[in-house]
Write a structure and sequence with these properties.
Length: 386
């Protein structure tokens, strides 16, 4: 029986949730001897952890559509003078058009049986004229496609995959023509790996709450988190409790400045980014996810693996579904400082049944088993490759 050649397309292999999920997914799919997997990228791989992973799997061909992409990005710091910035944009636009033309002529994946655009229609231009079936994963709410001008390009794909049941319902309403061609497949979570990494990861002494996320002012809601912690800290008599924020991003300086102006500022710790946040998570009284929207927030699933209770904003999509409508974790309305502070107090004073919350979350982890996810993906691939 001939192998099915599957090409996964992703813009960059950086340190991020989507990229880590792709690695976990491919690791599981490689167990199937009937699949031959390749990876297409926009930019060369720089992150050492992903370079090592690819080096350990030389059987996975990798094709880079824009080999100079990182070089153009590196030029940005030299292009702050006004006349140079538009020139750089023009040059990069022409370069991308040239590389797409080269790809169409050389057809790097002429023998592909199916393409999987794994991150929010990122390859709609490159795959527009592809000869094989195309599936795309949407890591976010269905409204993300409309908000970012991607909805008109959905029609080049044969099937859409979302990460939650809410996404399927919303997408079917927003783009009704895809009813029957949109599927929910949960991200795979390697529980054993998470527990191993937590055992050797950096932790923090004492009692603390922990949020692990990018410091992104658009998606994440870190100002609500800081305000709620300050309210919790003041109302409970300035307890010896800290807030540990693990991550980095565009909002880092602004948030650190905000923290210094709060009465609880000395109890707010910014660790910066780390490739292994699980030690911090494992030692926390609770992990917190203050965010405006998500695709499938894996930090909540990872917390369940570690047996740590969660507090999350009740945003679209994922938290309510993962936390079993509040039975496996505490939910608060997006931006509600008062409600989040009350949940922190409930954890600190043990009025919330944290053992029951964590146990319910753990019991429902089977939904995110890597073998289950791989089986669903393989079934979907075979539906389109016959």
């Amino acid at each position: 029986m001939a192998k099915i050649k599957v090409v996964f397309c992703i813009p960059n292999m950086v340190i991020g949730g989507v990229e880590n999920v792709l690695v976990n997914t491919v690791n599981e799919l490689m167990r199937d001897d009937n699949l031959d997997i390749a990876i297409a990228l926009h930019a060369p791989v720089r992150e050492p952890v992903h370079r090592q992973w690819l080096a350990a799997h030389p059987q996975i061909p990798v094709y880079t559509y824009y080999p100079l992409c990182n070089w153009f990005e590196d030029m940005q710091k030299y292009c702050r003078v006004f006349p140079l910035k538009p020139l750089r944009k023009i040059a990069f636009s022409l370069y991308k058009k040239y590389r797409r033309m080269v790809a169409r002529c050389t057809r790097p994946f002429a023998d592909a049986d199916i393409f999987i655009d794994y991150k929010n229609l990122s390859f709609f231009k490159e795959l527009r004229n592809a000869h094989a079936p195309r599936i795309t994963w949407v890591h976010g709410p269905a409204g993300y496609l409309c908000d970012n001008g991607l909805a008109p390009h959905v029609n080049i794909y044969d099937h859409i995959v979302g990460l939650t049941d809410d996404f399927v319902a919303e997408f079917s309403h927003v783009i009704p023509g895809y009813r029957g061609r949109v599927t929910r497949i949960y991200n795979p979570i390697d529980g054993d790996k998470i527990r191993r990494m937590a055992a050797c990861g950096t932790t923090h002494p004492g009692h603390y709450f922990c949020q692990v996320s990018r410091l992104d002012p658009v998606q994440k809601d870190l100002k609500t988190l800081l305000g709620a912690f300050d309210l919790f800290w003041g109302e409970n008599g300035a307890p010896d409790v800290q807030l540990v924020i693990v991550g980095d991003g565009a909002q880092a300086d602004e948030l650190q400045q905000m923290a210094t102006q709060l009465p609880s500022g000395r109890n707010i710790i910014f660790t910066g980014a780390t490739s292994n946040p699980f030690g911090f998570m494992a030692g926390a009284m609770a992990t917190i996810l203050a965010t405006r929207y998500e695709g499938l927030p894996t930090v909540l699933i990872e917390s369940a693996v570690l047996g740590v209770p969660c507090i999350s904003s009740d945003c679209p999509n994922g938290p309510r579904e993962i936390l079993m409508n509040g039975h496996a974790g505490l939910l608060f309305n997006v931006g509600d400082v008062r409600q989040l502070a009350d949940h922190m107090t409930a954890i600190w004073t043990s009025t919330a049944n944290t053992l029951e919350l964590a146990a319910t979350a753990t019991e429902n982890l089977v939904r995110f088993n890597p073998a289950t996810t791989a089986s669903q993906i393989t079934h979907l691939i075979k539906e389109y490759v016959k």
